[in-house]
Task: structure prediction
Amino acid sequence: MTSRRRAVVLTGPMGVGEGAVAGILARWLGVAGTDLDALICRREGMDVPALFARGEEVFRQAERRAARAWLDESAAAGGVLALGGGTLEGPDTAAALEQVAIIVHLDADAATVLARLDAEAIAARPLLAAAADPRAALEDLRRRRAGGYARAALRIETAGRAAEDVALDLLRAMYEPACGPWRQEPREVGPGVWISRGVCRLAAPRGAVLLVDTDLPRGHDRALAGLEAAAGGKVLRLSRRGGEGCKTTESLLAAWRELHQAGVDKDLPFWVVGGGTLSDLGGLVAHTYKRGLELHLFPTTLLAQLDAALGGKNGINLEGTKNAVGTIRLPETVQIDPLYLLSLPTEQLREGLAEAVKSALIGNPELLALLESRPREVLSGRLDLLEAVMTAAAGVKLKVVGEDLHEAGRRHLLNLGHTFGHALEALAASRQIAFGHGQAVAVGLVFAARLAGQPALAERLAAVLGAFGLPVALPEWARREPETLVEAMGQDKKRRGGENLWLLPEAVGKVRRVVIDRQSVLRALGEWR
Result:
């Protein structure tokens, strides 16, 4: 049974970074973050050295009052509190905190802590500033405070790690599927598609093949260790760097060879941990090697979680054309863990949010309203909002795919914004211009609304996409080459009878599919200013 304690209290040796970690956790969780020393200073009207100058017991009394105030005012709402190093030495305070919060011990050795502290930081810590040998003082404090640290439910090592990495590892421990205090029961949102923080619904005692993105941050090491444990420790790991560069014939052939040389049998499952490009590549590898290995996807980007890993499409690029070679085959499971989103750079979040806007436009006005009303919070990495966006957008795709797996009709809706977007991507790649999929889709959505004769809708889309920092107008480098853009559309795999099929939005939830001739597209491009 998971703990009902929703607040988090961070403790550890002075200088371990609990204040920075608390701020990151609070932002991700959408709760108040409090530094106990800062709260003491506000309540007492003086800084810590001044309070200590009146005697350590005076400071400890102020500390106990501040902790009690936090317990009374903030703990019930699930806040995050960073303690001073000695707060838990007071048994009454420690017991009271333990009743309402998960206590986490952030730890680092004395040498690491001293390396982090400059002269000003040392001077602000009276017990350290007065010491003849700061390192010996730190080690002595650690021994004296060991009983308080032992109250912690979790211990996280911070040496050599950035605060974001520590915060992520902490949340991974909190939601660890087997025994984390906040562990969740996964919920099924579509056939074989599971969502929860820390989800891992696998057991493969004979082992597994694991295709993993080499750029996956260290904060997810705990998740990878869980997968290896589910495979009985017998894992053949294939590594690729995510991005369109991995979706090549050479990469596909190399993967086949790695599997063949390792003697992989047909009954060994194939697990993919990475973004949409690795899902594309891994799906094709699994589908084709020995006529099909059991496939499980663990998408790690927003774009993959709400789009690329859903619906069974996989493939590689060919001579500049995206996804020219591929198949459609649903994986056994897609296991969506929102915690992966917390390590994404802002640019990658934007990529996924363009697809979220597309999904909202196809069939979820409530999602569009959420994206319009809280863009800053979504983009800042607030976990509950990211999870809501991902779940709603994934729901749109799963509904459409469930009605038309093999793209015989309704599934074409999911290509909204992509006919033009893919052409932009191809032109950018040929000119060695950095222009991501989400950026291309954003421009493609606005152009589709303009092409549909819906200027008000185009303005609305431009506003929400622009709020996420996505481009909403034709880039200058593309404006100079309209003929090349239209030519690139000629390679679109969704063409029929030599003509491009366009998805044109007339309103939220109303999209029509039409054939538009080359000259009409060129004219619309020329009029776009």
About this structure: Residues 187-344 form a domain with the Rossmann fold fold (CATH 3.40.50.1970). The mean pLDDT is 92.
